[in-house]
User: What shape does this take?
Amino acid sequence: RAEALEAARAALEVQLQGEAEKTRAARAALEAQRVLWGLKGQFNENGDLEAIKASMLAELARLEAARRAPVASISEVGPRWRALPPEMVLILAGSFKRERSKVTLSRPFLMMTTPVTQWQWREVMGDNPSNFSDEPDSEQRPVENVSWFDVMAFCNALSKREGGMREAYQQVGDEWRRIEGADGYRLPTEAEWEYACRAGTKTAYWSGENEADWARVAWAWYGENSGNQTHPVGEKPANPYGLFDMHGNVWEWVEDWDGDYPSGDVTDPKGPSKGSDRVVRGGSWAGDADFARAAYRFSWYPSNRGGDLGFRLVRTPR
Assistant: This one.
């Protein structure tokens, strides 16, 4: 029975692939199918294939109708660095090991393929705070010299610009709070960032276990090869999830306060409820390779800005 169901599932996936290719966001839709196969409780216990097909087709139609930031090919949106809405990929639900604990992400999410660029920032905010803004290719480089608070404002501004989505953050006095259930642009949680960076790998870098593996093929811009500056996004190879510059180029703000990891296995962790510093991940053009490890954590005051400090955005599909 299990073999028959698997064969039927495979045949159905081929059929659904043809359906999905008719949509404007075929690439995202195909990945959404695989998400649906993996979601617990999504399918009928008795293997009702017609119910499965109807559920999947309905979900594909819903995603296509609701999505305001579709995952589009580069030919559709132009170069990555000047894509608005930004180019994003669908990251499937799953888990990874962090120290001695298992971290599970129960829902898929959309993540930008690159850090936010100077062009994208200027288009949304009307200015460019970057230290490296006078270079001939500056628009293609990641925006930097932005604080965590600046990023909150950018997230809401981009959500408002696109329309049809609920802004992810609310400012209350000097604090910014995530609005639960909002589908607007936001920063990834620390767990989402690490899960996406690892892209199913278990090594220090997605490309290998040590610096020699990483540096031999120049997987990232870091202190040894950057020439003491940022570089245009997407020049280095993408990880298996299609994400560029997860190691190096600029540190990336995440949503979490800095603090000790919780003990034991966790699902959808969001970090401490309060703190003094916000976490940054990924290393930068100015640092050693060790700082760019998938597991490496650092933090800054949320008001801090620096020429090696940028970010990328995520969204939760509706």
Observations:
- The CA atoms of residues 151 and 311 lie 8 Å apart.
- The two ends are 34 Å apart (CA to CA).
- The chain has a mean pLDDT of 82.
